[in-house]
């Protein structure tokens, strides 16, 4: 069953939102600046893998500049972080869509 959590990264003043699959692998990630909520990351593992397989280095670089990079590891690794907690699928989806609208379309 998928899981959605948010974690506050105090060192970077970022709210990080993670979607994970049944195995806990991060599948989508959003990061919002803590002071004003501006999206800085909205990356998808599916998109990253697709671009890595089908695109050149320049296309992948443009994707990373626009959407950032997705965290490696498992959701469970982040559950013990400060101010971590589960969120609903609906809340994650709303945050995801807002971040993607702000950062641009899915094609780099």
UniProtKB/TrEMBL annotation:
It comes from Streptomyces antimicrobicus. This is Uncharacterized protein.
């Amino acid at each position: 069953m998928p899981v959605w959590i948010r974690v506050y990264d105090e060192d970077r003043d970022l709210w990080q939102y993670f979607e994970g699959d049944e195995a806990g692998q991060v599948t989508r990630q959003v990061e919002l600046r803590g002071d004003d909520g501006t999206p800085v990351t909205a990356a998808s593992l599916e998109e990253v893998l697709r671009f890595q397989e089908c695109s050149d280095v320049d296309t992948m670089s443009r994707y990373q500049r626009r959407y950032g990079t997705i965290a490696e590891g498992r959701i469970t690794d982040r559950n013990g972080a400060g101010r971590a907690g589960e969120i609903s699928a609906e809340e994650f989806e709303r945050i995801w869509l807002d971040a993607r609208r702000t950062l641009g379309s899915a094609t780099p």
